[in-house]
């Protein structure tokens, strides 16, 4: 069996590409609608070392868009569910699971603790997202950051650009504004959609886990964001960027 499951991948990226992916170490922060799919795509491509981070459990409202969310998994920890799935895809995967909501001060500690070849920011709350971006920029760690997938339904409008080239995304606008105070205005790639948010789908919350509001979501948009984020990483690692 061994590498046979990667036979189709090797035809496309050659043995050298397979080796590059197997030797790479990638961090995925957030295992919701975007991060769960991104982590799976990375594992199926053959990334050899991964650290996945999420402190949340599956809620019934996650079922419409998140890979580990099923009626049978409600109340279970996302990091364990996703971790088990990744290990079933690649039993030789060197996987570290961090079952926690990373406080902003923990971001620096984590990024500095290990040498990551790439970081995927799949956090949907502004404050921890900003902290992770700053930690990556300060340490010159490669980063792809997911912007707002909520309130959108047109897959053709999703793209990857540098943060300073994002538009029609309220989350990206907030991110740019906060980063400007840190004298960061470019230097990392973002997955975003140029489609205008459906304002009628907005709902306010109690502010739990740094989140004060959220937009309605459809099954395929967060998954596409995760696909684009994973593609950005895989193509960079294999030299196809």
Report what the structure shows.
- The protein is an alpha/beta fold and 241 residues long.
- It has a single domain, classed as 3-Layer(aba) Sandwich (Rossmann fold), CATH 3.40.50.720.
- The chain is 38% helix and 16% strand.
- It has seven helices and nine strands; from the N terminus they run αβαβαβαβαββαβββα.
- The protein has helices spanning 7-22, 35-45, 78-89, 104-113, 126-138, 170-180, 220-237; strands at residues 25-29, 49-53, 94-98, 118-121, 143-146, 158-162, 189-193, 202-204, 213-215.
- The strands form two sheets. A seven-stranded mixed beta sheet has the order 3-2-1-4-5-7-6, with helices on both faces. A two-stranded antiparallel sheet has the order 8-9.
- A hairpin with an 8-residue loop joins β8 and β9.
- α4 runs parallel beside α5.
- The radius of gyration is 17 Å and the shape is globular.
- The model has no long low-confidence stretch (mean pLDDT 94).
């Amino acid at each position: 069996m061994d590498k046979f499951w990667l036979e189709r991948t090797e035809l496309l990226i050659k043995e050298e590409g397979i080796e590059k992916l197997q030797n790479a170490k990638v961090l995925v922060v957030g295992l919701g609608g975007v991060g769960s799919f991104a982590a799976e795509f990375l594992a199926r491509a053959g990334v050899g070392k991964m650290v996945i981070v999420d402190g949340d459990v599956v809620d019934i409202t996650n079922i419409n868009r998140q890979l580990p969310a099923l009626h049978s998994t409600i109340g279970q920890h996302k990091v364990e569910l996703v971790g088990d799935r990744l290990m079933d895809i690649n039993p030789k995967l060197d996987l570290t699971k961090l079952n926690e909501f990373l406080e902003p001060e923990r971001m620096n500690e984590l990024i500095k603790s290990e040498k990551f070849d790439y970081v995927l920011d799949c956090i949907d709350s502004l404050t921890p997202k900003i902290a992770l971006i700053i930690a990556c920029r300060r340490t010159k760690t490669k980063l792809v950051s997911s912007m707002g997938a909520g309130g959108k339904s047109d897959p053709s409008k999703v793209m990857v650009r540098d943060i300073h080239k994002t538009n029609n995304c309220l989350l990206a606008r907030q991110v740019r504004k906060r980063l400007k105070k840190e004298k960061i205005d470019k230097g990392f790639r973002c997955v975003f959609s140029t489609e205008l948010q459906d304002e009628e789908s907005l709902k306010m919350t109690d502010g739990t886990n740094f989140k004060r509001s959220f937009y309605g979501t459809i099954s395929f948009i967060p998954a596409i964001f995760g696909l684009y984020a994973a593609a950005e990483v895989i193509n960079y690692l294999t030299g196809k960027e």
